Amino acid sequence: MTRDKHTIKFTKPILSNKEGLQLSTPEIVAKYIARRLKTDIIADLGCGIGGQVIFFARECKKVYAVERNPEKLEYAKENCRLYDVDNVEFILGDALSPEIKEKVSDADIIFSDPARPLSEKERSLENLEPSIPEIIKIYSDVTPELAFHAPPQMPPERIVLGCEREYLSLNGQLNRLTLYLGSLKSCDRSAVVLPGGERLGSLDAPGIRKSPICDYLYEPEPSVVKAKLLNELSHNLAKENKDVFFYKGDDRRTLLTSSTLIDSDFFKDSYRAIANTENDMTKLKEILKSQKAKNVVLRFDIDPKQYWEIRTRLEEGLAGTRTLHVFGFGNELIVCEKI
Ligand SMILES: C[S@@+](CC[C@H](N)C(=O)[O-])C[C@H]1O[C@@H](n2cnc3c(N)ncnc32)[C@H](O)[C@@H]1O
Question: Is the pTM of this model over 0.85?
Answer without folding.
Answer: yes
